[in-house]
């Protein structure tokens, strides 16, 4: 039986939102988000920021139909040229995405479908920092209908939202017998990781498990390429940690998971 926690619920219902209601984010929601972002920045050493009412950043994407009414974003800012910074950004910014999901807001990670130069002009970025990515945020179109939907309906929509690789594909090299006898937390963690967003939905993260030592590690699929692999790694690690019911990851590709 799956653990029932708020963060697990958020994983089960989160989908990428492309169509937003033109209504502004409510002030109480904005305050909740800002408080969450401040706490996450303190923990992570990042410089995440909520930027509101900047339609110029998404003018072309809105005009093309890639987005509808996108105008707010979370700026994912961290240290320059830092793979660990990008991994931390994926891990901690996705924590904000899940919080926003619980607040009833829609979100979507953004890499290329925005004007990054215009976005940076709205942000506070120190000389030793860079803008990694953005996360669109706002009320989903027809959000009152969305908020009134039953959890089961939202969860079903998440399952049908996109194709996904299997647990077996996500833990390559394990035999069927090894999978059958694998600890429950491993399977729950991987299933949660498979619900994580990734660039172009490539799902480039793979897990390994050593039955002798009980050690779990996360890294990249052999064929994985792209600018956002470490960001994807951080996001997948957070989802795994939540699904597993606790524990701590070390940073880096191939780094181990320390079971709580």
In round numbers, the mean pLDDT is 91
Indicate the structural class. alpha+beta
The number of distinct structural domains comes to 2
Q: In percent, how helical is the residue content?
A: 40-55%
Strand content: 15-25%
For the record, the CATH class of the largest domain is Alpha Beta
Please tell me how large the radius of gyration is.
18 Å
Instruction: Please name the CATH topology of the largest domain.
Output: NADH Oxidase
Sheet of most strands: 4 strands, antiparallel
The number of helical runs is 11
Shape: globular
Quote the distance from N terminus to C terminus. 19 Å
Please state the second-level CATH architecture of the largest domain.
3-Layer(aba) Sandwich
Task: Return the string of H and E elements.
Answer: HHEHEHEHEHHHHHEEHEE
Oligomerization category of the chains in this entry? single chain
Strand order of the largest sheet: 1-2-4-3
Number of strands: 8
Name given to the CATH homologous superfamily of the largest domain? NADH Oxidase
Low-confidence stretches: none
Task: Please characterize this protein's 3D structure.
With 260 residues, the protein is of the alpha+beta class. The protein has helices at 6-13, 27-44, 59-64, 83-102, 116-121, 143-148, 151-160, 167-170, 176-180, 184-193, 229-244; strands at 49-51, 73-79, 106-110, 129-138, 205-210, 215-220, 248-249, 256-258. It has two domains: 6-146, NADH Oxidase, CATH 3.40.109.10; 162-258, NADH Oxidase. Helix content is 42%, strand content 16%. Strands 1-2-4-3 form a four-stranded antiparallel sheet. The protein has a four-stranded antiparallel sheet with strand order 5-6-8-7. α4 crosses α11 (229-244). The chain is globular. Pfam families: TM1586_NiRdase. This is Nitroreductase. One of its GO terms (molecular function) is oxidoreductase activity. Residues 7-244 form the Putative nitroreductase TM1586 domain.
């Amino acid at each position: 039986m799956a653990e029932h926690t708020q963060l697990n619920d958020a994983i089960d219902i989160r989908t990428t939102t492309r169509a937003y209601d033109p209504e502004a984010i409510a002030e109480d929601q904005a305050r909740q988000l800002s408080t969450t972002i401040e706490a996450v920045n303190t923990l992570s050493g990042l410089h995440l920021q909520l930027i509101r009412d900047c339609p110029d950043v998404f003018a072309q994407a809105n005009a093309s139909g890639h987005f509808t009414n996108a105008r707010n974003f979370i700026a994912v800012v961290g240290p320059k040229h830092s793979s660990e910074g990008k991994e931390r950004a994926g891990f901690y910014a996705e924590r904000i995405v899940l919080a926003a999901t619980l607040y009833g807001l829609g979100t979507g990670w953004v890499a290329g479908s925005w004007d990054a130069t215009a976005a940076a002009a709205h942000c506070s970025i120190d000389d030793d920092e860079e803008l990694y990515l953005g996360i669109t945020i706002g009320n989903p179109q027809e959000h009152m209908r969305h908020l009134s939907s039953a959890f089961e309906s939202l969860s079903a929509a998440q399952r049908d939202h996109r194709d996904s690789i299997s647990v077996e594909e996500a833990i390559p090299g394990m035999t069927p017998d090894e999978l059958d006898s694998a600890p429950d937390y491993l399977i729950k963690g991987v299933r949660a990781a498979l619900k994580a967003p990734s660039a172009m939905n490539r799902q480039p993260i793979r897990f390994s498990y050593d039955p002798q030592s009980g050690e779990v590690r996360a890294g990249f699929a052999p064929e994985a390429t792209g600018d956002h692999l470490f960001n994807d790694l951080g996001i997948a690690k957070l989802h795994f940690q939540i699904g597993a019911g606790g524990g701590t990851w070390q940073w880096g590709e191939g780094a181990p998971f320390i079971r709580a």
